[in-house]
Design goal:
This protein is mainly α. It has three domains: 85 residues, Fumarase/aspartase (N-terminal domain) (Fumarase C, Chain B, domain 1); 239 residues, Fumarase/aspartase (Central domain) (Fumarase C, Chain A, domain 2, Up-down Bundle), CATH 1.20.200.10; 57 residues, Fumarase/aspartase (C-terminal domain) (Ribonucleotide Reductase Protein R1, domain 1). The chain is 64% helix and 5% strand. The strands form three sheets. It has a two-stranded antiparallel sheet with strand order 1-2. It has a two-stranded parallel ribbon with strand order 3-4. Helix 10 runs antiparallel to helix 11. The longest helix is centred in the N-terminal third of the chain and has 37 residues. The radius of gyration is 30 Å and the shape is elongated.
Length: 432
């Protein structure tokens, strides 16, 4: 569905060959364990390990007739074997194989996502360090508020990405659970000790109480975490889009040589990469909703979740992998323009320091509402706020010209920024 976005490593996880390869590995690992326990001949186990092969085309041909994928898989494998093929799928039901393999796929996809997320975090951290002292205006409601630094803005991204990393690691652990407990989860034909040993060899935990399937709250947790990560990517991309607007122009996403922004308007340099990230986040959220709706199955299992997961498994992981990769490029190649940030910062003639004056007047004895009205009147009038306040008798009776100058010193307003920024980095980099 989203093959144009698929990068090779993620594509391999979701290929038919890889999926059936995991099915076969689960079957063979069970055979190995049973042989080690003396329950089947070791010689047969060796032959199966040596000769069992998957043939995707043959399986698909059989499936077209029998209308059951696991039966078709077993039949295709058995065609290349002798009598020892009878030990395959011994005591298992289809979901033992399918659910356990799905856990392996999601676990391995998580590892790729974590690696890509770390690359994104690295380039964001680079921008934090590069722009610790790059002063810009902070905005609330899209309106100038008070000064910040671009490094502090990037630190906010970094800490959120780090929380997403912790969440994804936890979701990986939640989803990395298999089951070989049979048709209704009673271990009637595969003892718990065998189940545990097989799953340990596969690097998975044992689902404590399965029905015929692993409970789908685990999958809902995983896909919800992907949606949260996608939402963080969207927040960063949305900010970059806003900062690139013509009226702002403080940060621009990369624009390659020969790139064109519009079929009609040669002057256009549109934030298409960031817009793409924002659009894909909507899909990631829809996959999370689908996973949540998969939780309620009939009795010990129905099949309503299966068709959904065949789509959202590869699509959601592939999509988020692409989002991370694309956002990494955007952030690493950002065109940051400190001179535009400075010009925008000065547009309101010092009005961005209004709170500092308000608080100083309150501390000198003026009622807060009165102080607010005095400062607001001058600020909304436009022009040089510091000069207007210095000429106001009420203000000058409480604050000297030197004190007013300190209140309009942006560096003074940002005196704690480095502490806040370092606190953010320490929290983001904390173990866990």
């Amino acid at each position: 569905m989203i093959s144009r976005y698929t990068r090779p490593a993620m594509a391999r996880i979701w290929s038919d060959e890889a999926r059936l390869g995991r099915w076969l590995e689960i079957e063979l690992t069970l055979v190995d364990v049973l042989a080690a326990r003396g329950e089947i001949p070791e010689a047969d186990a060796r032959v199966l390990r040596r000769d069992a092969r998957i043939d995707v085309a043959r399986m698909q041909a059989i499936e077209a007739e029998v209308k059951h994928d696991v039966i078709a898989f077993l039949s295709a494998v058995a065609e290349g074997l002798g009598d020892e093929a009878r030990w395959l799928h011994l005591g298992l039901t289809s979901s033992d194989v399918v659910d356990t393999a799905f856990a392996l796929q999601l676990r391995d996809a998580s590892d790729l996502l974590l690696a890509e997320l770390d690359r994104l975090r690295q380039v964001v951290r680079m921008q934090v360090e590069r722009h610790r002292e790059t002063i810009m205006i902070g905005r609330t409601h899209g309106i100038h508020a008070e000064p910040i630094t671009f490094g502090l803005k990037c630190a906010s991204w970094y800490t959120e990405l780090s929380r997403a990393r912790r969440g994804l690691r936890a979701a990986r652990a939640t989803i990395a659970m298999g089951k070989l407990s049979g048709a209704v989860g009673t271990c009637a034909h595969t003892p718990p000790a065998v189940e545990r040993e097989v799953l340990e060899r596969l690097g998975l935990g044992v689902e404590p109480v399965a029905t015929q399937v692993v409970p789908r709250d685990r999958h809902a947790t995983f896909f919800a975490q992907l949606a949260i990560l996608a939402g963080t990517c969207e927040r960063i991309a949305t900010e970059i889009r806003h900062l690139q607007r013509t009226e702002v122009g403080e940060v621009l996403e990369p624009f390659g040589p020969g790139q064109k922004g519009s079929s009609a308007m040669p002057h256009k340099r549109n934030p298409i990469l960031a817009e793409n990230v924002c659009g894909l986040a909507r899909l990631a959220r829809s996959y999370a909703l689908a996973a949540l709706e998969n939780m309620a199955l009939w009795h010990e299992r129905d099949i309503s979740h299966s068709s959904v997961e065949r789509v959202i498994g590869p699509d959601a992981t592939t999509l988020v992998d692409f989002m991370l990769h694309r956002l990494t490029r955007i952030v690493s190649e950002l065109d940051v323009r400190p001179e535009v940030m400075r010009a925008n910062l000065e547009r309101l003639g010092g009005a961005i320091c209004s709170e500092a004056v308000l608080l100083a007047l309150v501390r000198r004895g003026m009622r807060r509402d009165d102080a607010y009205r005095v400062v607001q009147r001058h600020a909304l009038a436009g022009g040089d706020l510091q000069a207007a306040l210095a000429a106001d008798p009420q203000v000058r009776s409480l604050l000297s010209e030197a004190e007013l100058a300190t209140l309009f010193d942006i560096r003074h307003q940002l005196r704690h920024t480095s502490t806040v920024l370092q606190r953010a980095l320490d929290d983001a980099d904390a173990p866990g």
